[in-house]
Write a structure and sequence with these properties.
homodimer, alpha/beta, Aminopeptidase, Alpha-Beta Plaits, six-stranded mixed sheet
């Protein structure tokens, strides 16, 4: 089978596809700020309908899920998982062009969500356009599940999947992201850590008070928060919540071999993020790679209390809060971590520290020995000049668990990301060459999967 | 001597004086935000000139000092210390009327700085107006030193006073504030704690990073800050910086007796600030009163790091900072505390935590046995229906030290404050009845001091 015509179609119509992506990126869809989410779902639904998909915008208790399906030639079914929501654009002052005004420069398209995840969605639709243009039909049945809460821990997706198991039935799944590493090698990420995201908050008085009065006799919300946080993890990086590590599975020999085959990330990380040293005395190599993804974490993502302006203000704050995320590894569970956290804070005397659960996901993995994984890995060879390299689990999180454990699917990654893509950061961008390659890769995956 | 005419003048001209005060409050002068400071100094200078003072707006390395003097009948000299700068008005949304649009309601004038300290200054000028109207001259020499950095730790005032010792020479000083307590008893505060205000900041990377990558292998600025802070003070409220308490003088018997004569503040504090409990197991009474002012403090006034918006954002912050104030008691010194703090952080492994010194002041006290104190305390009797009650030291800070130790002056407080005055908070206000009483009190102090 040759992909000459397919590739020619994609190369000829790239600008049109980028124009469609730009329209989608221009529609804000910031779930955390409840900004434009419904409008974006409607726009995505329309994009699928234009391509002959039967589409339903399905309500959840949170953002709606866009579901689309179109029958194809073979009776096999491929499910694509994508999301239309994006991260908050802040800090705005660091964007070179406004986050929701997509801008092309240096062979890249810039904008919030252009990589994570709108670019992935549109390049996949682009691949289907090429197959339809060539064959007049899709090689197999294709389904899309496109949610609007991925950036806020996919709060309602697990229930949604369990509820709509039959409709979502498929033989395999392509995940929302993927891409090349700094060597331009396409990577096959086979697992995701879970997450438990909480806000810890304390209120010690009904109003702030002059620090000359309150300092030595009134409880201070900021101090309560600092002390509570300092019981969660110490400078040795060991998480001190009793029971936290009980369900952690260490990497096995196969994992270790796959991780050892990866390039040492140390130098790249130092240059990209301006980090001087790594934690736990790590220098680099396989130990650094394994610590990055096989260790659970406790990360303070934000701190807020009292006066934050210029100069000094002598006030004792009545309120303080912290955003904290725990990345979880198999077989940890966010609801259990939440219970352990509450019990720990209570036991340490911090019954005054409230926990607001902002979302959680179970960790999950697909086996590297699945035939579908082999197919996706090999389909990359013609496009990228090499097969994909397999990574057993990656550091991020996502709602992988219900796809693997409720729908029973092998889940492969494929995508247009690259190390400079700046997902979640200012100046998020995609490279147009990788956008085109991803579309070519997807066209091959769908074609070969159908047979 | 009778004050019948003086009091009649003050009662007849109250509205005019409030109008003058309103014009001064409408001029923002937020030192921490470098907003309107010079304009306010010029306005204050003009107010003194109108009253026949020789005035000089004297440059410092920070905000200018307004100095004014006018000779009087006797050869004794009374120095008034005031300040024209105000606290930042934030949080703006809690003000019932805008902070720089003074508003009269319920017998009160609202606005930022109306109590702290513009109302004090204008009511004193009002008292001098009455004396000038009655006698055509001032009973004694009067000097004003009105600075613009009181709310930012009076950074340059100590040096200024040492430099201009002869010009500032006087026999006694009236401090910038004072007022009645919740029983309407006028209070004589005879000392101020010192302060050492710092910002602690950490930078661990050149940019924020997705928490799925950085969480287990990159240093997190927010964690570094939390751990560093948690070494400064524990939940037992004992400050853990070695040497911190070395120069602390406990209260003596005279202090204890004066403190024991004060009313129990416990109930009032619980109601006013919505505080459920006090620190160190204190219930109230003299122990609470003594802890409030004779203990040094370490107060977190603000915390800033990472994402602080709604919902969740999975980002590991590269920067974090805290505003921290230490209230100091005799004979602690801010420069020494700063050195001890640096040494402590270094010893605890926090060489990565930077300290920015935002200002400091030495603690200082005037003896309750000074004849001038007796004069001011007794001068209140006719106005308030009782003499002032003496408090040996109060919880706040101010640049008292150079007045007491460089100029060698007895320093008394007198003022228009009251417990609901909300200095440093939204809806700062003064009561017009207390404004009038303060002017009457000042007229008596000046007259009796002259003889």
């Amino acid at each position: 089978m040759t992909y000459k015509n397919i590739d020619a179609y994609l190369e000829a119509h790239l600008n049109e596809s980028i124009a469609e992506l730009s329209r989608l990126v221009a529609q804000p869809s910031v779930g955390a700020q409840d900004w434009g989410v419904k409008e974006c779902a409607a726009l995505v639904a329309e994009m699928l309908r234009r391509r002959g998909f039967r589409v339903e915008v399905m309500a959840t208790e949170g953002a709606p899920v866009v579901f689309g399906e179109r029958a194809g030639k073979s009776n096999k079914t491929l499910l694509f998982y994508n999301h239309y929501d994006v991260q908050p654009p802040e800090p705005l002052e660091l964007w070179e062009t406004p986050p929701f005004e997509p801008a092309l420069r240096d062979g890249k398209l810039f904008g919030r969500g252009v990589s994570d995840d709108k670019g992935h969605l549109v390049s996949r639709l682009f691949a289907l356009d090429a197959l339809l243009a060539e064959y007049g039909e899709l090689p197999c049945n294709v389904k899309f599940i496109i949610e609007g809460e991925e950036e806020t821990s996919s709060t309602h997706l697990h229930d949604f999947i369990v509820q709509h198991k039959e409709r979502l039935a498929a033989d395999a799944c392509i995940w929302e992201f993927g891409g090349v590493d700094h060597r331009e090698v396409p990577m096959q990420y086979l697992g995701l850590r879970g997450i438990c995201y909480v806000e810890l908050s304390v209120e010690t008085a009904s109003s702030d008070v002059h620090s000359g009065i309150g300092g030595s006799i009134f409880p201070n919300a900021a101090w309560r928060l600092v002390w509570a946080l300092s019981t969660l993890k110490g400078p040795d990086e060991r998480i001190r919540i009793p029971g936290f590590y009980d369900r952690v599975k260490p990497p096995d020999e196969r994992d270790y071999a796959l991780m050892a085959a990866l390039p040492d990330p140390a130098q790249e990380y130092k240059e990209r993020y301006g980090v001087q040293r790594f934690l736990r005395g790590l220098e680099g190599g396989v130990d650094l790679s394994i610590a990055e993804v096989f260790e659970p974490t406790c990360t303070i993502c934000g701190l807020t209390s009292g006066y934050q302006g210029e100069g000094s203000k002598t006030v004792q704050p009545a309120r303080a809060s912290a955003k904290v995320d725990f990345r979880l590894v198999p077989d940890q569970r966010p609801d259990e971590i939440l219970r352990l956290l509450r019990a720990h804070l209570d036991a340490q005397g911090f019954t005054d520290v409230d926990i607001t659960y902002l979302g959680g996901e179970n960790p999950a993995r697909t086996s590297p020995d699945e035939p579908f994984i082999h197919l996706v890995v090999e389909a990359a060879r013609e496009v990228y000049g090499m097969p994909m390299q397999i990574v057993p689990i990656t550091g991020g999180s996502g709602p992988l668990y219900p796809f693997v454990h409720d729908l029973g699917l092998p889940v492969a990654t494929a995508g247009l990301g690259y190390p400079g893509t700046r997902a979640h950061a200012p100046n998020e961008n995609i490279r147009l060459d990788l956008y085109l390659k991803h579309a070519k890769h997807v066209a091959r995956i769908v074609s070969q999967f159908a047979t």
